[in-house]
Specification:
The complex is a heterodimer of chains A (79) and B (470). Helix content of chain A is 39%, strand content 0%. Chain A is an all-alpha fold and 79 residues long. Chain B has one domain: Alpha-Beta Complex (Amidase signature (AS) enzymes). In chain B, 39% of the residues lie in helices and 13% in strands. In chain B, strands 1-3-2-4-6-5-10-11-9-7-8 form an 11-stranded mixed β-sheet, sandwiched between helices. The chains are: A mainly alpha (79), B alpha/beta (470). Chains A and B meet through helix 1, helix 2 and helix 3 of A and helix 10, helix 11 and helix 12 of B.
Chain lengths: 79, 470
Amino acid sequence: MSYGRASSDETLDAAVVQALAKKMGLDLSAEEAEMLTALLMNQLAAVESFNAFDLQDIVPAPIFRLGRVDTDLRGASDD
Amino acid sequence: MTDLNELSLSEVSDLLEAGEISSVELVEVNLRAIEKTEPVVHAYASVLAEEALEAARAADEEIAASGRRGPLHGLPIGVKDNIYTEGRLTECGSRVMAGFLPDHSATCVVNLERAGAIIIGKTHCHEFAYGVNTPPSRSPWNMDCYPGGSSIGSGVAVTSRSSFGALGTDTGGSIRVPASINNLVGMKASFGRVSIYGVVPVAWSLDHVGPMTRRVKDNALLLAGMAGYDPKDPTSANQPVPDFCADLEAGVAGLRIGIERDYFFYDGVIDEIRESVESVIAEYQRLGAEIVEISLPELEITQDALFTIVLCEGSTWHRKLIREQGDKYDPATRAIVQLGELLPATHYLAAQQARSLYRTALNRAFREQRLDAMLGPTMPIPTAPLDMLNAPRADGYPDTPVGSMCHHTFNANLAGLPALSVPCGITSDGLPFGFQLTGRAFDEALVYRIAYAYEREHDWHERKAEIAGL
């Protein structure tokens, strides 16, 4: 499955991604870092599609629910 | 004599009820089918032959002494290998979980075994149900094409007639996609309808367990056996489980079915599927349903929102495992798990905002248009050759086959609404496909009723693929 979308010509230095991952405890080979960098660039572009809508005052769904005593999640029945 | 494997789950249940067959016979015919088809289709990760036969003998004794517990008593089924089964291998398609024997069963399995169902085997899945590696299962509809995933083995087992029904899991379409590809009925019920306790998570806020069967009634019976409130699962809904078959034959006269054409009939839908699903819509109109054109531009953000949520929630679950046993992951799965860790929290929350926006818009459409269901193709394409999944689509549409396959399924996971794939055609290349009904929260019974009204007018569900070389 191809996660994310290919929409960006910008690049990120794979060495930076490799270093960041190492800081987080993930050891990547140079080859893995190259692949992950490409995936990351694509996936970071995913939020661009959200800009077509105004999300400013929308409370994210799970956060809204985690604060409830009743954690019964009901899909679209409660908007 | 009728080949029992050719009968549906509800038909063999009726024969068991009438005392015309035994549970042992059913398990034996499934085991013979497994022996015959497995060398070619590889649906099962493990087969529980002795244990299933023992359970069948016990079921027959109990039925003789005190009758059946219900319609599932004595029936063998398959269970996807990411669902815990106490004392039985649960390897989740991964070397990370090789040899794992859970000390408890998932609640859905507990419920089904309590209803008398017998687990005949665990079915293959993509590694941790991510859908990025390639399990060995192949569909008899076309051995060179993708059989669907991540409930790949469940789809192949049921369509190969080596199981009367099987459980799948669905985070973005993993029940409905293999159901469509394998000419089956597949249900992702309302979020919280079936407990996900004991199911290896992909993404906690999107995961569902559900049934894959040959017919609508089979599916309704299996769902009833699995469903119910579970205090062990914080996402479980405390909702009564109705008889999903009670109104199955009530028809669709007067019901309102919404069609969102911009998204579900976009240019990426191939002509054969478009025309067939248009004829499904015409059929519902003929049967007395009212077709309502709706507009939901928010659908356009559902793919990006779901991917982002899956990556972030999934990678959180894998944080420890990926560090301790990262070398055991398939490289494609490992990359996806690592990717999720590198996404900013703001992107995860923005995706959840987008999800809220979509849910609100969908709920408004259902309410204001007084919809009973929404209908469209389950997939825009039937499937694709395994070696072309990530290549540009052969028909020139600017997407990959794998990118297109879940275009129509993600939105129901984000909304938490029930969504059912129903067989409705076979392409000129011999590849099946289905249409998808999305219903109101916790109204699976109505979704089944609408689906059954179509199924009883057609014989798509009877079509069967011959397995080459057998």
